[in-house]
Amino acid sequence: MKELVIGANDAGKRLDAFLQKAFPNLPQSLLYKYIRKKRIKVNGKRAEISQRLASGDTLALYVADEFLTRPQAQFAYDFLRAGRSLSVLYEDENLLLLDKKQGLLCHPDDREYIDTLIGRVQRYLYEKGEYDPEAENAFAPALVNRIDRNTGGIVIAAKNALALRILNQKMKDRELHKYYLCLVHGTPKPQSATVTGYLFKDEKHNQVKILQTPRPGSKSIATKYRVLDSRNGLSLLEIDLLTGRTHQIRAQLAALGHPLLGDGKYGSNAQNKPYGYKKQCLYAYKLVFDFQTDAGALSYLNQKSFEVPAVWFRDAFRDGTL
C-alpha cells in the first residue's frame, strides 16, 4: 500500500487526471478498475473517478509497486543539464516573464531534449529553492505560451498550479494581449489594417498556406498591423496578434506581398541577401494583462504592461545600421 498527501499544486485536479500524471506506469484500464474496486481511496473512503482533490487529502493506493514507479526522480534532474542563461523581465511568487532569445526552443522536440526554455526555467527555480521535484506529485513549472525557435520575445512561465490554471484560462479568453515587432520588405498599404483569412497547415512540411476561403482543416485567422516607420525598402511594423496560429504572422504578411526580412521559408533568400540578414526579424516584444473577469490570486497584474527594452532589428533599423 502506498499513501500520499495532496499538496497545493495538485488541489482541484480530478482524481483520474492526477493519478495518470503522477503514476504513468499505471494503465488507464486498471486505474479505473482499482477506483471502482475501492483499491484507491481518498481520506479512507471510496472515491469517484471524477472527484476533485483538495489540499491535504490523503490518497491510499492498494496497488502493486510496479505500477507506482514514479519517473520524476529520473527526469527531474535532466533540467540540470539545461543552460543557465535566462533573461528575466519580471518575476514574483507566481510567475516569470522571460525574454526568450532566437534559436532557443520553448519545449523539447525530436532534435533537442535538454537545453530548452522550460528546462532552463526549471533549473533556475530548482537552484533558487522554489521547485523541488521530489515534493511534487504531478506538477512542474510550465510555460503558458510558446513562440517558435526562430522568434524571440516574451514567454510566461507559471511557478505553481494555481497561476498556471488562471493564466491558461486568461490566454484562452484573450485577456492577455501580445504585440510583435517585425521588419518586412516594402510598405503595406494602408498604413494600418486588420487582415483576415484562413490558415491551412501542411504537417508534412511544417509550413502553412493562407487561404481567402475556408477548406477542411483550415482555421480562421486575424492579424492587425500598424506601420511604424519605412526606409531603405523596409518597414517596421507593430503586430497585434488577434489569433495565434502556427507561423501566422510570417505567412500572412508574405501573402500580402511583404515577407519578413530574413525569413527564407515564406520569403525569398535572394530578396534577403542584400541586407545580410539570415535571422527572421520578428519579436514578441510587449505583453499586456487586460483581465475582463476575476483573476483571483493574479488580480494584481491587471492593466500591467511589460516590454522588452532592446529588440535587435528595431534598434539597428532606427539607428541606420541596418
TrEMBL record:
It catalyses: a uridine in RNA = a pseudouridine in RNA. Keywords: Isomerase, RNA-binding. GO terms for molecular function: RNA binding; rRNA pseudouridine synthase activity. CDD domains: PseudoU_synth_RluA_like, S4. It is an enzyme of class 5 (isomerase). Its EC number is 5.4.99.-. One of its GO terms (biological process) is enzyme-directed rRNA pseudouridine synthesis. Residues 13-73 form the RNA-binding S4 domain. The active site is at D148. Responsible for synthesis of pseudouridine from uracil. Belongs to the pseudouridine synthase RluA family. This is Pseudouridine synthase. It comes from Candidatus Fimenecus excrementigallinarum.
